[in-house]
Amino acid sequence: MALCAALHADPADNRTLAAFGKQVGASDRTLSRLFTADLGMSFPQWRTQLRLHHALLLLADDMPVTTVAHRCGWSSASAFIDAFRRTFGHTPGAHRG
Predict the structure, then answer these.
(1) What is the distance, to the nearest Å, from the Cα of residue 32 to the centroid of all Cα atoms in its chain?
(2) For the purposes of burial, counting CB atoms within 10 Å of the CB of 77, is it exposed (0-12), middle (13-18) or buried (19 or more)?
(3) Which CATH superfamily includes the segment(s) 2-95?
(4) pLDDT value of residue 97
(5) Phi then psi for 23, rounded to 5 degrees?
(6) Cα gap 91→10, rounded to integer Å
(7) Using CA atoms, how far apart are residues 10 and 13, in angstroms rounded to an integer?
(8) pTM attached to this predicted model
(9) Is 48 left (phi over 0), alpha (psi -120 to 50) or beta?
(10) What does the alpha-carbon distance between residue 37 and residue 41 come to, in Å, rounded to a whole number?
């Protein structure tokens, strides 16, 4: 799916599913159904998982948490830290290097 490739290339891309739909020629409802059917999760859930995966790679390279947050599409470091902690049970600072 072109949408997945675009977000893999730039996880910080904050376009809505409707905006991606216009780009790829599908409605947001169609794309939403495809995400659920093909990936077993909603688009927002998938995007968060993609961003967290990308964040893990950047943290492993010892990138600062605030930089990782912005490169992965979170609006603030605190929002990123909260999502990271909910998913992994610890802060991203504890995961670096």
Answers:
(1) 16
(2) middle
(3) Homeodomain-like (1.10.10.60)
(4) 55
(5) -65, -40
(6) 23
(7) 6
(8) 0.91
(9) alpha
(10) 8
Instruction: Kindly state the DSSP code that residue 2 receives in the 8-state scheme.
Output: H
Structure tokens at 82: 């909260």
Instruction: Tell me which DSSP letter residue 75 carries.
Output: S
Q: Give me the residue label for tokens 């794309």.
A: 31
Nearest to 44 by CA among 78, 83, 71: 83
Domains of the chain, by residue range, sit at 2-95
Tally of residues, the chain: 97
Residues of the chain with pLDDT under 70: 96-97
Amino acid residing at 80? F
Paired tokens of 17 = 């599913």
